[in-house]
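Take a record:
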Amino acid sequence: MVYITAEEWQEELTAIFEDIPGSATDEDNEVDEERKERIKQSFDKIKCVYPHINTCSKLESASVAQLLEDAEIFKLLGSTQTIKKRTRHQLSDAIRQYIDSGDNTDSAHYWPLVGRVRVCELKLPDAIRFSLC
């Protein structure tokens, strides 16, 4: 599993912080559905990686620099992680928090930070080879 770099995450966070302020209305005071959906997706992404930021007010009180200082997140950025498991079920369980957005709001999910996942050399009859790029 290859994580995006700190620079890539910083660019994404900066774009999110630029997009979120204000409302999702246009100059005619009508709801801009596209912007509203983009804001929702951005906020969901932040909540996955930083589960303690679960309200708009908490997000507004944070900064890109503060989020980048999170030691657990920073150590992942730009790194590669190898996970070896004997069965597909073990592998699925092991990578779930890295590729699933999940419903558990108490723990972090890292799918926004994953740049690529490659599964290779599985010796299982029903294994599927895939690559997320």
User: Anything to note?
Assistant: DSSP finds six helices and three strands in the chain.
